[in-house]
Task: inverse folding
């Protein structure tokens, strides 16, 4: 089992920044792939960004088109913590942000490919 705990959400004005964190614990070898999803009120959950391993200590990042350039950095460190830097936030970024992980992922932006989920952290952007 893998446990995921998110932090870093909050309320900001449009144009502001936040940095989300997700700490993975437990059987972390089952969390080779990690990513962020979000769900706005009344909408389906959507992928935001993810990292997949390409070597022992290297990861390749993927981003949704809607955040490309504004969310410039998704990183995973050696302590199994996943970070997401979010800049130039917009009102439409308001959502609950979930950390997800899985041992294998075919499509990084398919929530069904992820086995483990955190409880989520709220991000609210006011215009």
Result:
């Amino acid at each position: 089992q893998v446990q995921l705990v998110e932090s870093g959400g909050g309320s900001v004005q449009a144009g502001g920044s936040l940095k989300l964190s997700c700490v993975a614990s437990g059987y972390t070898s089952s969390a080779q792939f990690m990513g962020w999803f979000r769900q706005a009120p009344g909408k389906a959950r959507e992928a935001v960004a993810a990292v997949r391993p390409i070597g022992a200590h290297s990861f390749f990042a993927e981003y949704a088109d809607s955040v490309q350039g504004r969310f410039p950095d998704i990183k995973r460190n050696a302590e199994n913590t996943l970070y997401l830097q979010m800049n130039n936030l917009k009102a439409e970024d308001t959502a609950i942000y979930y950390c997800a992980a899985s041992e294998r992922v075919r499509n990084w932006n398919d929530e069904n490919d992820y086995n483990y989920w955190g409880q989520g952290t709220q991000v609210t952007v006011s215009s």
Notes: The first strand starts at residue 2 and ends at 7.
